[in-house]
Design a protein that fits this description.
Helix content of chain B: 55-70%
Oligomer: heterodimer
Mean pLDDT of chain B: 77
Low-confidence stretches of chain B: none
CATH class of one domain in chain B: Mainly Alpha
Radius of gyration of chain A: 23 Å
Helix content of chain A: 55-70%
CATH architecture of one domain in chain B: Orthogonal Bundle
Number of domains of chain A: 1
Structural class of chain A: mainly alpha
Largest interface: A-B, 69 and 64 residues
Number of strands of chain B: 0
Largest sheet of chain B: none
Shape of chain B: elongated
Shape of chain A: globular
Low-confidence stretches of chain A: none
Distance between the termini of chain A: 40 Å
Amino acid sequence: MSREQRSLEWTPLLFSGGLAFLLFTLFIATMFGEPPMRAGAMIQQAGGVELGAANLVTAVVLGYRGLDTLGELAILFASATAVGLVLSTQNGESDKQASVFPDKIFLGEIFESASRLLMPLLLLLGFYIIIHGHLTPGGGFQGGVILAIALFLPALARSGEIPLNHATIRLVEGGAGTLFILIGLMALMQGESFLQPLLQPGEIGALFSAGSLPLLYLAVGLKVGAELAALLVHLSGESA
Amino acid sequence: MMEMVLYAGAVGLLVIGIAGLVLSHHLFRQVLALVIAEAGANLLLLLAGYRFGGEAPIWSEGSFPSVMVDPVPQAMVLTAIVIGVGIQALAIALLIRVRQQTGTLDREQAVIEMREALDQELGRFSTAPKPRSQYAPKGERPLYPVVEEGQDAR
C-alpha cells in the first residue's frame, strides 16, 4: 500500500478540529488562575505546619494523596510486569537474536570509561534527590529514574554486565512496596487512617523532618528505580 | 493575552497529538503522537494551578511567599508523567512483538497480516497453515544495528 493510494481522511481531521474547538471554548470560558477549588490554598496554609515538609508538592503526593501514590505504584508495577510478560520467551531467557546489543561490540574507550565513572556518581545523585525530596524539588520519582539510568548505563555502554540480576531487582521492588504499605499500616495500628503521616513533623527545612514522609519517598524511589531498570533491561532484550 | 497564548499552546499540543493518533498509519508514530498529547494534557493541568507572580510551592528559610502556585496539580502531573512512562514502555514492547509477528509496523498491513494468521490458525483456508510464532519471527526486531563481524560500531 503506497502513500499515494491513501486519500486524505476527512473524518479524523474533522474530529481533531472539533476537539480543538471544544477545548478552546472550554478554556476560554473558565477564568484563568481562579479555579473553583480551594484545596490548594488550604494546603499552602497548613501543609508545611502539619507535615513539616518544606516542599508542598511532596506534602500533597505523600501526605494528602498517599493512597493515590500507592495506586500509581501499582500501575507502574502492572506495566513493568506486562512488559516482562510480552517480551519474555519460552524458557525465560531472552534470545540473543532479539537483543539490540549484538555480541562483541566495542563502543570505544571513552564511552566505556565514562560509563564506569558515571555510574557511582549517578547512584549518589539519585539517592541525594530521593532523600531531599521533602525539602527541594525532586523526590522519589525523579531520583528513582536517575537510579534506573545508573543501573542501565553499564549495559548500554557494554562495559560489563548489568550490576543487578533479576532476583535482586525483584527483591528491591517487592521490599520497597512492602515498606510503603507497612508504613501505611503502622498508622492504622495507631488509630489513624491509612497512610497518615507518622512521627513528629520536626523543624521545617531540616534533613530529618517531615515525619515518615522521607521514608515513604525512599520506598517510592527504590521501587521506581527497580521497576524502570527492569523495563529498560527487558526492552533492550538483555537477560537480567 | 498571555494566558491565551499559554492555553493555546497546551490545547494545541493536545490536539496535535490526538490528530496524529487518528491520522498516522505507522504504529510507532502513533505512540509518539500519544506522547505529544500527554505533554499537552500535563501542561493544561499545570496551567490550571498557575498563579501569575506566584512562587514555587516550597517554603524556603525565613520567607513564606504569599502567592504560591497551586501544588495539587503539580503533584497530579508528577503522577501522570510516571504513569505515562509505564504506558509508553508497554506500547513499545507490544510494537516489538507486532513487528516480529507480522514483519510490518503499518497499521492496516499489520491488521491484514494478523487476520491472515488467525484465519490460518482457525483452518478457514485450505492452504496448509504456516507455523508462525515469536520464536520463529517473520520480521526482525526494529532498529537492529547493522554491524559486520569484527567491526566497531563507532
